[in-house]
Amino acid sequence: MSGFYSEVCVTGGENMPRDGPVIIAATHHNEIIDIAALSATIPYRRRVCYWAKSSLFKNPVSGVLLTSSGSIPVYRNPNSFSSSNPLNSSSSSASQADLFRHTSAALVAGEVIGVFPEGTSYTEPGIVQVKDGAAWAAVEYAKVINMSGKEGKELVIVPAAIVYTDKSKYQSRVCVRYGKPIVVSEYAAKLDPESAESTRSVVKEITAVIESELRHLTVNAPDWKTLHAACAARKVSWKNEDRIALHSFVDTTQRFVKTFSPRSESMEVRKAVLNRYLALLHFTDTSHSTLEDLYPSVKHDEDFPMQPLLWPSRIRAGATLLSQLCIIMFHPRALLFFPVFLVHVPGYITGWLAARMLTIPNEEETKAQFKAIFGGLGFALSYGLLTRACVKLAVNFTCPVHFPIRNGNLTVFIDKILQAFSTLCSCLTARQGSLKSSLSILAAAVGMTWSLWKWHNALVYVNYRQWKRFLTALRVFTGLLLPPSFDLPADQLPAYSTPPLPAENPYIKRHVVEDSPRNSTPIGEVGRTVTQSSFQNAEHMSPGVQGPSIPARKLIRHLFLARSAAYRALRSSDERG
Question: Which CATH superfamily is domain 7-217 in?
Answer without folding.
Answer: Glycerol-3-phosphate (1)-acyltransferase (3.40.1130.10)
